[in-house]
Design brief:
The complex is a heterodimer of chains A (110) and B (114). Chain A is mainly β. In chain A, a hairpin with a 4-residue loop joins strand 7 and strand 8. In chain B, strands 2, 4, 5, 6, 9, 10 and 11 form a 7-stranded mixed β-sheet that branches. Chain B has a 4-stranded antiparallel β-sheet with strand order 1-3-8-7, with no helix packed on it. Chain B is 0% helix and 49% strand. Chain B has 114 residues and is mainly beta. The chains are: A mainly beta (110), B mainly beta (114). The interface between A and B is medium-sized, with 23 and 25 residues.
Chain lengths: 110, 114
């Protein structure tokens, strides 16, 4: 069974700090990896996707992928209170559907 | 570019009743997905369409659940004889053809079964 593991948190960081969110996955055949942000009561909103080992940067966000370690992370630089949300890691193992982790709650304090 | 839309946004029903939800994907997207999310959990895959063909169904999808996408555009998800355990957020997502398969979610339908 394909599993995606995330620390449920909450992860608390002060405004302006770097938030580091981590995710591990069980299926070595996984091909693409996604980070979604979900505010309370709302639906998931895509932040980034990554396919290749290494780093991918988009504004304040950096996704990191290490397929050998089956590990994906998301760094948020200059964290803002508006970044406070649950961050979902999702993995596509080649069958189009996504397997999600339970999400990590991030709290950014002013 | 309008996003994925879902209707209704909220539905309250009594146990044993049937409910139907609708999803309209992003217009150029040929793939459509249904997920269910309960409190404290990530979205859980239910079923997937490519055009009008239902290509995959989760083993978690009981016989009381049925989904259709008759013309390859909008989709409906019906739950028959609802149970209290069906209370959840039902999410629809769509993606375009291509290697990315990046899925974009609609606002969801929150179902409460009394």
């Amino acid at each position: 069974q394909k599993e995606v593991e995330q620390n449920s948190g909450p992860l608390s960081v002060p405004e302006g700090a770097i938030a580091s969110l981590n995710c591990t996955y069980s299926d070595r055949g996984s091909q693409s990896f996604f980070w979604y942000r979900q505010y309370s009561g709302k639906s998931p909103e895509l932040i980034m996707f990554i396919y290749s080992n290494g780093d991918k940067e988009d504004g304040r966000f950096t996704a990191q992928l290490n397929k050998a370690s089956q590990y994906v992370s998301l760094l948020i630089r200059d964290s803002q209170p508006s970044d406070s949300a649950t961050y979902l890691c999702a993995v596509n193992s080649g069958y189009s559907t996504l397997t999600f982790g339970k999400g990590t709650m991030l709290l950014v304090s002013p | 570019d309008t996003g994925v839309s879902q209707n209704p946004r909220h539905k309250i029903t009594k146990r044993g009743q049937n409910v139907t939800f609708r999803c309209d994907p992003i217009s150029e997207h040929n793939r459509l997905y249904w997920y269910r999310q309960t409190l404290g959990q990530g979205p859980e895959f239910l079923t997937y369409f490519q055009n009008e063909a239902q290509l995959e169904k989760s083993r978690l999808l009981s016989d009381r659940f049925s989904a259709e996408r008759p013309k390859g555009s909008f989709s409906t998800l019906e739950i028959q004889r609802t149970e209290q355990g069906d209370s959840a957020m039902y999410l629809c997502a769509s993606s375009g053809e291509g290697s990315t398969d990046t899925q974009y979610f609609g606002p969801g339908t929150r179902l409460t079964v009394l």
